Amino acid sequence: MHTYLNKILCGDCIDIMRKLPNASVDAVFADSPYNLQLGEKTLYRPEDQTEARAVRDDWDSFENSEQYNEFTRQWLTECKRVLKPEGAMWVIGSYHNIFRIGSILQDLGFWILNDIVWVKTNPMPNFRGTRFTNAHETLIWATPTKTGKYVFNYETMKKLNGGKQMRSDWNINICLGEERIKDSDGKSLHNTQKPMDLLRRVILSSTKQGDIILDPFVGSGTTAAVAKELGRNFIGIDREEKYVTAAQERVNNIQPIDLTDIEVSAPKREAVRVAFSELIEAGLLYIGQTLVSPKGERVMITHDGQLTHTLYGKASIHVMAARIQHSVSFNGWDYWFAEKRDGTLIAIDELRKYVRNIKSGIKMAA
After folding, report:
1. Res. 127 pLDDT band, cuts 50 70 90
2. Phi/psi of residue 244, each to 5°?
3. Mean pLDDT rounded to a whole number for the chain
4. How far apart are CA 162 and CA 169, in angstroms?
């Protein structure tokens, strides 16, 4: 693998992927040809009638749908072979091709985990004014097998989303300005260059530091650049020499960043589980004790390890917190505080961490 690792390779992606070992990469991000040729039609901006640049490159040209389907089947087959069983398969496309790709993915045995809608906050307009402005693209996230134990960095995504669970609609600008890679004439080098923020979210969500990410259609090198920035390895492939040259130069100028404040290395769901009743058993809380919420609501611990409130009855720490806030659900560990002997308050989640460390065999300071 060292022959290919952290390099941008020039050639046919199917031929090059056939040289890679089985189950040798952790993730694939594929921005494959969309097959959206416009023939001889020319698009003009309605405000000033200047010509709008469209995708007319040879790499996006296919004789018919059958040829495009067969090409898609071949490169996806190689992706499935080189992906580890627990690997991540990401494909992005528009309405022109994403439904074909999704169908072929399923035919090949991939298991689809999510479809993500990339909502373009600054989309290009529909120049003819004959359809809705196409303001989104679709990403498919899949794993090679249904039983694969795939990576999903839930807590990292939640942190990036301001402490809330990440949704499947991602509002991200299209690639403009200084991020756009230009050719020698100062024009955009690649018509479908994707924004780095999009790839950051893809890579941070489904890979770990040190993983190998393959991009069979690397284009201007966004996947490779973000992989290097985030401490991942990459293999980039493109058949256009001008893209390979520009992508390699771009990657050479990328410096890895400190991920300490970005990635959450130990997802909460993988930590040792601690029940609320275990805090009572450990003597950290006691039956009849009062717990207090940030809003001053007071509840009492019952003999069966639940909470009781004069208005809201008896319930678990989570249900009681939700009832008081008139919410569907809430994490009670983050809501309730116990009074210490000195009169100060301590979050019950801190008490849970103490019990968890003991169960994990971690020595605690006196």
Report:
1. low
2. -60, -45
3. 87
4. 15
* Three-class SS state of 66: helix
Instruction: Report pLDDT digits (tens) over 106-117.
Output: 999 999 999 999
**Using an 8 Å Cβ cutoff, are 310 and 304 in contact?**
no
Tell me which DSSP letter residue 93 carries: E
Contacts 24+ apart (CB under 8 A), 331-339: 332/276, 335/293, 335/294, 336/291, 336/292, 336/293, 336/299, 336/307, 337/291, 337/292, 337/293, 337/294, 338/284, 338/285, 338/289, 338/291, 338/292, 339/289, 339/290, 339/292
Q: DSSP character for 314?
A: E
Output b/e per residue, 257-291; b: 16+ Cβ within 10 A: eeeeeebbeeeeeeeeebebebbbeeebbeeeeeb
Tens digit of pLDDT for each residue in 4-17? 999 999 999 999 99
Tokens of 97: 């091709």
The Cα–Cα gap between 181 and 162 comes to 31
DSSP run (H or E) holding 53 = none
Q: Which helix (H) or strand (E) holds 346?
A: strand 345-347
**Lateral strand order in the sheet of 212-215:** 7-10, 233-238, 212-215, 25-30, 83-93, 136-143, 111-120, 169-172
The predicted structure's pLDDT at residue 176: 79
Residues contacting residue 136 through CB under 8 Å, at least 6 positions apart: 117, 118, 119, 120, 123
Rounded Cα distance, 167 and 154, in Å: 11
C-alpha torsion sign, points 259, 149, 8, 238: negative
* Segment 206-216 mean pLDDT: 97
- pLDDT the model gives residue 358: 86
Which residue bears the tokens 């990036």?
Answer: 160
The per-residue pLDDT for 64 is 82
Phi, psi of 108 (to 5 degrees): -85, 0
Strands in 290-292's sheet, in edge-to-edge order, are: 313-315, 307-309, 298-301, 290-292, 337-339, 345-347
Q: What letter represents residue 276's amino acid? A: F
Number of H helices, E strands in the chain: 10, 16
The predicted pLDDT at position 162 comes to 86
Q: Report the sign of the C-alpha dihedral through residues 21, 23, 26, 32, in that order.
A: positive
Q: Residue 47: how many CB atoms within 10 A of its CB?
A: 8
